[in-house]
Amino acid sequence: MSWRKEERRAERGYHHGNLKEALLQAALGLIAEKGAAGFTFADAARMAGVSAAAPYRHFRDRDELLSSIAQRGFEQFEARLTAAWDDGRPDTVTAFERVGRAYLAFAREEPAFYNAMFESGLPVDANAALQAASERAFNVIRAAAERLAALAPPGAPRPPAMMMALHIWSMAHGVASLFSRGDAARRKLPMSPDELLEAEVLIYLRGLGFPTERRPQAKSAEPPPVPPEAPSGSGVPPGGPWGKPK
Amino acid sequence: MSWRKEERRAERGYHHGNLKEALLQAALGLIAEKGAAGFTFADAARMAGVSAAAPYRHFRDRDELLSSIAQRGFEQFEARLTAAWDDGRPDTVTAFERVGRAYLAFAREEPAFYNAMFESGLPVDANAALQAASERAFNVIRAAAERLAALAPPGAPRPPAMMMALHIWSMAHGVASLFSRGDAARRKLPMSPDELLEAEVLIYLRGLGFPTERRPQAKSAEPPPVPPEAPSGSGVPPGGPWGKPK
DNA sequence: AGCTCATGTGAACGGCTTTTACATGAGCCG
DNA sequence: CGGCTCATGTAAAAGCCGTTCACATGAGCT
């Protein structure tokens, strides 16, 4: 197999042709394997079949490659959250929970992106484009929270949508960081991270007085009536959001 | 100032006397400054005034030093959470929220420990002692949740204490990670991380049907009556847990 | 065909981690 | 007190990484 390098060189010639992309892909794989801390610029170059100095033609330094990956991650993240939200269909609460699950799914299925985005220790404001991408992703949650806030039961003071969005974000991020990723997933739990987060969000929404049942809503007209008997029993499946304790 | 090294050597002689401790302290300072990723074994040695090879007499490798710090961190963390809980005085809900604030305070005031414990990327199960220390810290939250669960309003199904503990942990960790530490703290927020977490926990507890007012409770006898008018107004300060929207 | 400039190479520097052979001296034993 | 021993520290070296620099290559334009 020692002809590999020469052959690769012969195949591609002196110039790679698409090195930037190849480096991003290589780095993605390496980060998925060994984490952002273990990832090495030289390794990525080797994997792409170029010398250790070549990457510097495309990235100022290792950090810039990392933050490029983080930026892409935020873009894909935004796309997945947007798809999960699906403009609040079929009803706001259901869609909202789907966003929560999408958050966890992303953390689980794209560990490299998630790592670069949230665990690589690179400063949020290092790159203006990065920060913007991060904000766009958050804005999906924020917009969803706004729709949800608009459905708040009348009478009670309306919760600020921004606060709700931050709360949901912190729940999803907390569960993902602690229980849903790599080594952390090895902590033994009585339930899956998905179930854990779903219950958490349901209880939270109930605390805000929302009906937490899932059924189609009027488009955006009158909010469904809150059962007058007591919000604590409103529409939650029997046993509450956490199922029956055995 | 170039006599410094020789003088230090003269002061301490060939043997340091307390190198292990000195290295831990040096590492703590370095991690606080530059994060666990930027921290360097060689730097710690330099700071302690010894050669780069000396640390290997006390730690198998860099990771072992890191996990020693994480372990100490979990011990101090446990102590602070235990103090905050204060065995549920003056009432369970108040004490519970104090635990939440203690979580954030620790993340803020001991960034080096927090970093080593949660952000250094070292596997949770690398070290049995580390894992045990981590579990002891979590058990404080768990025990508090158990006391809280015992106060659950009668009639409704009782929430599993373990689940509550995990929920609270994820909220505190999410807020700390996203908003309360280093670079992340630079995200602009409409409220302080402490307020954010407090509101989050209050809403969550209300979602479980808990009275979220703060007033002395009977020792552990009958839970205070839930005002029959509506849990959504029960004891929460005017404006709800989030203050008045302006 | 010739030129130019983006892209890739190899060598070199300094720094880090870890290992190895050797140095030192604190504490114990006789 | 004298000598031994072993924990603790040192210097040197190997191997890796990030980064820079002068130089090579060849794709695309004129």
From TrEMBL, chains A, B:
The keyword Transcription regulation applies. Transmembrane segments: none annotated. One of its GO terms (molecular function) is transcription cis-regulatory region binding. Keywords: DNA-binding, Transcription, Transcription regulation. Residues 213-246 are annotated as: Disordered. Residues 40-59 bind DNA. It holds the Pfam family TetR_N. Residues 17-77 form the HTH tetR-type domain. This is TetR/AcrR family transcriptional regulator. It comes from Bradyrhizobium rifense.
